[in-house]
Design a protein that fits this description.
The longest helix is centred in the last third of the chain and has 26 residues. This protein is an alpha/beta fold. The chain starts with a helix and ends with a helix. Helix 2 crosses helix 3. The chain is globular, with a radius of gyration of 22 Å. The strands form 4 sheets. Strands 6-3-10-13-11-12 form a 6-stranded mixed beta sheet, with helices on both faces. Strands 7-8-9 form a 3-stranded antiparallel beta sheet. It folds into 2 domains: about 90 residues, no CATH class; about 240 residues, Aminopeptidase.
Length: about 350
């Protein structure tokens, strides 16, 4: 017995320490999106993540690009059951990773939708069973709002599309089925600051976008509603349409949201995304209050006529120099996509809990 104790004392203490996976965040990541990407429920692991990585976290527990962080060890079934009972989180564990189908682009390759980033593989199943219709504002012969940026023109449709396709990719990484309603056959995710203007966007499945405003909106909505009929009535289906506003050049605006006045589920999705933006602004811009709003706007054609509950998002004022930095920096466009996705995850998890 004494020999056994001596041998145990000779074993380095490190041998009993927990082995943690090390990961590096992407630009725009926050703790919850990083955890979800690696199959960990933020409600169960965020507090432990903060404790493990406190020395490498920025103000208000923000992640630092270029830093390496340790992921908490996965809990046992008994520990998960106890934690879930305490937190009220969903009972379902992350499912097996799978590639989630997206609507194909013109050439039949989903990879073209994402450019050099390629088709994503689901790293977790936080949005498994959810269906999203994503539509970027304007396109084809209509560039939408245009702002002046030094010697360059910034077109609404190009920046709305880039954020939308980034959002599509991150939703798919979390297991969602995504349908891109407006697609560009040769512009995937782009990391340039000034995005080149073109007019070759198409409406799903391969329709030339008409010049007429109402005809264009009707074409978009018809595509959404046809796809909507493929899924059962109990399927979680949501439509998110992304735009860039044009106001006085001196007016700095925050991201704001519209929904149908009689759509309780559309309002809930808008509020869940809005709350994420409030928290992120409080963390990254603590000296400036976030004044983005959620309000009804039934006069908007796609909000009024889409079968899927819809959230209409305005990312900012393309004519304002401060808002332009929100668009021309690719890491900011990725952050916008990540935060919208985070809000969608919260909304879907709440909907799942209501069914249990």
């Amino acid at each position: 017995m004494r020999i056994l104790l001596l041998l145990l004392l000779l074993i380095p203490v490190a041998a009993f320490s927990q082995h943690y996976r090390k990961v590096t965040p992407r630009r725009g990541d926050v703790i919850s999106t990083l955890l979800v990407r690696h199959g960990l429920n933020p409600r169960l692991y965020e507090r432990e993540f903060v404790a493990l990585n406190k020395a490498n976290l920025g103000p208000r527990n923000s992640l630092r690009v270029g830093k390496t962080y340790r992921l908490p060890a996965r809990k046992s079934a008994a520990q998960l059951a106890a934690a879930k009972k305490k937190s009220g989180s969903p009972k379902k564990a992350a499912a097996k990773t799978e590639v989630v189908r997206a609507v194909k682009g013109r050439s039949g390759s989903t990879a073209l939708l994402f450019g050099k980033y390629g088709r994503p593989t689901a790293s977790d199943q936080a949005l498994r069973g959810a269906v999203f219709y994503l539509m970027s504002g304007h396109g084809g012969p209509d560039p939408g709002a245009v702002g002046q940026y030094g010697n360059y023109k910034l077109a609404e449709d190009e920046y709305a599309y880039d954020v939308t396709v980034r959002l599509a990719r991150v939703l798919m990484e979390h297991g969602a089925t995504v349908h891109m309603i407006v697609q560009d056959p040769d512009d995937g995710i782009r990391d340039e600051g000034v995005l080149k203007m073109d007019s070759d966007e198409l409406t799903y499945p391969n329709l030339t976008i008409p010049l007429g405003h109402v005809a264009r909106l009707r074409q978009y909505t018809n595509a959404i509603n046809r796809l909507h009929g493929r899924y059962g009535k109990k399927t979680y289906q949501r439509m998110i349409t992304i735009h860039v506003d044009s106001r006085s050049a001196g007016l700095n605006t925050d991201v704001f949201f519209y929904h149908h006045e009689r759509s309780a589920v559309g309002l809930r999705l808008a509020k869940n995304i809005h709350q994420v933006f409030k928290r992120r602004y409080a963390r990254y811009q603590p000296n400036r209050p976030y004044v983005g709003t959620v309000s009804p706007r039934t006069s908007l054609y796609v909000v009024r006529n889409s079968y899927a509950p819809t959230v209409f998002i305005e990312l900012g004022n393309i004519r304002n120099s401060k808002d332009q930095r929100r668009f021309v920096l690719p890491q900011n466009r990725q952050a916008l996509a990540n935060w919208i996705c985070e809000g969608a995850i919260h909304d879907y998890q709440r909907k799942t809990l209501e069914k249990q």
